[in-house]
Amino acid sequence: MINSLLNNFFELTLKTNIMARKISMLVPDWWDFTTLDDELLNDAAKLTKEDMIALSRDGFKVVFYDTLEDFYLAEALEYITAWKQSTADQPVGICGPIGPTEQLPLVARLVNELELDLSNAHFWGMDEWYVDGKEIDSNHPISFEKADKDLCFNRINKKFQMPEANMHFPKADISDYVKSWNSGIRCAVMQGGQGDTKHWAFNDPVKREGKYKDAPPSPEEFRKLGTRIVDLHPVTCMQNARTSAGGVVTGIPMQAITVGPVETWKAEKVSIWQAGTHDNPFGQRLTALMIGKKIMDSSVPMSLLADHPNVQFNYYTGGLGVCGTEMH
Questions:
Q1: Is this prediction's pTM over 0.90?
Q2: Of 100, 259, 240, 261, nearest to 170 (Cα)?
Q3: CA 245, 248, 199, 285 torsion: positive or negative?
Q4: Spatial CB neighbours of 242, under 8 Å, sequence gap ≥ 6
Q5: Which of 21, 189, 157, 20 is nearest to 92 (CA)?
Q6: Region 13-31 average pLDDT
Q7: CA dihedral 157, 275, 61, 181 (to 10 degrees)
Q8: How do strand 255-258 and strand 167-168 relate by DSSP bridges?
Q9: What are phi and psi of 129, to 5 degrees?
Q10: What is the C-alpha to C-alpha distance for residues 173 and 58, in angstroms, rounded to an integer?
Q11: N or C: which terminus of the chain has fewer CB atoms within 10 Å of its end residue's CB?
């Protein structure tokens, strides 16, 4: 009897602790950053630029750029630095985002001006829309593959262009894409932006259902996710409608194919670029705080990068903003 009562007590205690997580203020049926403890959220909102720089530690560096020109040039140079290392025997690539995209024409210009031969270089796209059981057509206006080629690769002089076989874009059949990550090509850097859900690529928080009804996946569990087809968080759909479709949410797919944490941890460096045009002043601070202090929670997917050995957060000073409350 005593053992039974003790077991019931411990089960109830465990359940109470799990249920202590708040319901999302944004979408109750999903996990997101609003389910975190208020003290953590309030601490993030108070961070100054200097506080954020001070969060740098071994494995995590915070860098600020005072002009957009310097910001996007520095981002573009990561492509050049990676590709210059590539040889036929030791191929090297970079995994790049759509968002931001302003660096892409600069990459093409630099390749042309430097006469950089990309015949041995590689590129991975991070993600792509998934519609009607397949990846969106590469000629569709919102195709990420189309954006990469229109803004960068098709602008490179044919003498220096990267072979089509060296460009790895996610498809509904993920097998070739996953194979490319395990084929001996070194990923020098994976770039990314940060969405409103605090994702990189489309690694969104998951739905609050089934085994994740009371708690989101543990960091260890989320880390095991590879390239896959995902349901997009409603906040992500709203954000992409704002940035890519004039707010027409019905024009944004609800699923996508995304690179996963498994591939992310194959990259030697993860470099996140925030100019203030995607996530807001609060979000830019929250993920820096969580990574700097190694607070990992999959309701904030970006926070899991706290466990990656080489992460750099890059900010445009003019886009950092403030977290004060006022009417406009």
A1: yes
A2: 259
A3: positive
A4: none
A5: 189
A6: 75
A7: -50
A8: unpaired
A9: -70, 150
A10: 38
A11: C
| Distance, CA of 25 to CA of 281 (rounded, Å) | 18
Q: Is the peptide bond before 100 cis (omega within 30 degrees of 0)?
A: yes
CATH number, span 25-319: 3.40.50.1360
Bridge-partner residues for 123, per DSSP? Answer: 94, 167
Q: What is the amino acid identity at position 93?
A: G
The answer to whether 311 and 59 have CB atoms below 8 angstroms apart is: yes
10 Å Cβ neighbour count for 312? Answer: 18
| Digit-coded pLDDT (tens) for 147-195 | 999 999 999 999 999 999 999 999 999 999 999 999 999 999 999 999 9
Dmax (CA) for the chain in angstroms is 81
- Please list, residue by residue across 145-169, b when 16 or more beta carbons sit within 10 angstroms of its beta carbon and e when fewer do: bbbbbebbbebbeeebbbeeebbbb
Distance CA(170)–CA(125), nearest Å, equals 7
Please, which residues bridge with residue 272 across strands?
192, 313
Helix (H) or strand (E) holding 26: none
